[in-house]
Amino acid sequence: MDLHYNRHHRAYITNLNAALGAQAEAAAANNLVKQLELQAAINFNAGGHINHTLFWESLAPASSGLNNLSATAVAPTLSDAITKRWGSVDAFKAAFESSALAIQGSGWQWLVQDPQTKTLELTTSKDQDLPKGGKGIVLGVDMWEHAYYLQYFNNKKEYLNKIWDVVNWQVAEKRFKGDPRAAFGALAGLAGHL
Q1: Domain containing 39 — which CATH number?
Q2: CA atoms of 49 and 137, how far apart (whole Å)
Q3: Which helix (H) or strand (E) holds 70?
Q4: Residues 42, 29: one domain?
Q5: How many structural domains is the chain composed of?
Q6: Is the same domain home to 121 and 41?
Q7: pTM for this model (two decimals)
Q8: Does residue 73 share a domain with residue 110?
């Protein structure tokens, strides 16, 4: 966890700041070509920062009691919506894990909410991309090797099985109910510009 947080996540922040600084210099010099060249680095590193921030905020110690979605007091509205959509919490977890295990290479597994229909959906994104289509993020799980390899080696299934022990369903409930601060907190402004 220390390597993941203090090295990988920090690198996204450092690289984002460098790209934004270079973009500001290019803008001051009216160098549109340079500004366009920097967009990929900005999108990748901003996505890495946002995704990881959402991920960390979605975790809680196993002893916190916030990880039991079946305990309706933790996340009653979300628990009901998951049961309505997938039939049971266990069926949801199986669908989430199946989708995550199908990711080829690096990416993220997401539980999202359609803003129009309010229905829950599972989706994935490559690399550090955010979910497409303006979907509201309820829960995201990092499926890059750096997230699981040191502890679980190449056993992504075991990583996913254990992630449920530390998911903070209270945060997911707030996101599901549409609280934008719960979804992006201090990152709300940055996320809206990507």
Answers
A1: 1.10.287.990
A2: 15
A3: none
A4: yes
A5: 2
A6: no
A7: 0.89
A8: yes
Annotated binding site for Mn(2+): 4, 52, 142, 146
d(CA 135, CA 119): 10
- Domain extent, residue 85, equals 62-191
57-82 pLDDT, tens digit per residue, is: 999 999 998 888 876 678 999 999 99
Cα 179 to chain centroid distance, Å, stands at 16
Helix axes 156-163, 89-101, angle to 10 degrees: 150
Residues listed for the chain? 194
Regarding whether 140 and 124 lie in a shared domain, the answer is yes
Spell out the residues 6+ positions from residue 174 whose beta carbon is closer than 8 angstroms to its own. 182, 183
Bind-site residues = 4, 52, 142, 146
Q: What is the pLDDT of residues 146-191, one digit of tens each?
A: 999 999 999 999 999 999 999 999 999 999 998 655 666 656 555 4
Amino acid (1-letter code) at residue 172: A
- What would the DSSP string read from start to end of 141-164? EE-SHHHHHHHHTT-HHHHHHHHT
Find the CATH number of the domain harbouring 167.
3.55.40.20
**72 and 45 both lie in a single domain:** no
Cβ atoms within 10 Å, residue 169: 27
Tabulate helix, strand, coil % of the chain (nearest 5): 60, 10, 30
